[in-house]
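Section 3.1: Structural characterization of target chains.
Under the original work plan, the team committed to producing a structural model for every single-chain target entering the pipeline before any wet-lab resources were allocated. The record below documents one such target. The sequence was received from the expression subgroup and is listed exactly as submitted; it comprises 371 residues.
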Amino acid sequence: MEILLEELYKTDIILDKFHFRKLFLETPTYKSDSFSKDKVLISATSYQINGISQCGKTKLVKNYLFGLKKSSYLYIDCMDLRIDIEELNKTLFDFCNKYKINTLVLDNYTPEIKIVNVPQLIICSEVHHEIDFLKSVKLYPLDYEEFLAYEHKYDSTALNHFFKLGGFPSMHKINSDGRIIYLQKTLKNTLILMELDILIFCTKMMAQKLSPYSIYERLKQTKKISKDKLYSSFETLSSKGYIHQLQKIDHPKAIRKIYLCDISLKSALTIDKQFSKLFENMIYLELLKSNSEAFYDDGIDFYLPESDEVILGMPFADERTLFKKMEAIEAFLFTYQIKKVTAVTMSTEGSMSHPLSHVEMIPFDIWAIGD
């Protein structure tokens, strides 16, 4: 095992052009050693980075390592088939001591690998692990503003490109005729069959109310499945972040709405075309990545209690359709004392007067990168 660690230690990390993300790792603090020209590490934050496959965890960490002295870190991909975990657990601590490793990265971490004492530990994993001293951060696929860093020009073509590619950074390197198969292969390699079946069904029900029981009732018609296993797989998909659930306001036990981790899964896993639901999912993901607490209600796409705001997904709205919508939700606006209603559209801008709330229509590309 030590031979493999030697090889990994000496191997130079290769990274294609890196586009900076909103999430970043803090730079370590050093001081000069009075007896040598070397700098001594004083403090460095240890992290666990959680996120679904292909969201950019590895690139984020490798870019961070580029800023460190080559001899100070060791990067291990725990999916390397050459790794014998039992042997790794016996040798890793001594190896890190021998080579004075300041930063140890365990990518695709599995809990069978014992944690060793190093100044800075970084683990990457789809699921969260209860390791007290690690700062936990969540990385999602690209939001629209991050996506724009990959674009050559910021006009209407960028938004159309976002609809086609979604938020997985790797999709920018895949030819258009191979993107769907690439995503399918990624999901097959990452998820067990039950999880994939559930995800496919959730894709068809994007932005609609959906319970694990209703998924079970539908899938058992064509597959021999266990209810317990399905419920467990549903929770795993949710905890990893492949699906997200939105609670109904003041009704925590009501059926929740289901959203996908990325809009690209819609075209990759189903031939159904529901643009309004896709558009709503886009809005949800922007709210999710901005850490905005949101709920839904009948006729209300998103209610943000912290800002007393309602957000409506209305891609092709005009003043007439918005006026009708406002009439339909007026009771909600009064009950919750809503100060602002934002109708997110594809391209329409405008505002209208209303006795209870400030109402405006904002195109998605402006809304998504606004303050």
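The first helix runs from residue 2 to 10.
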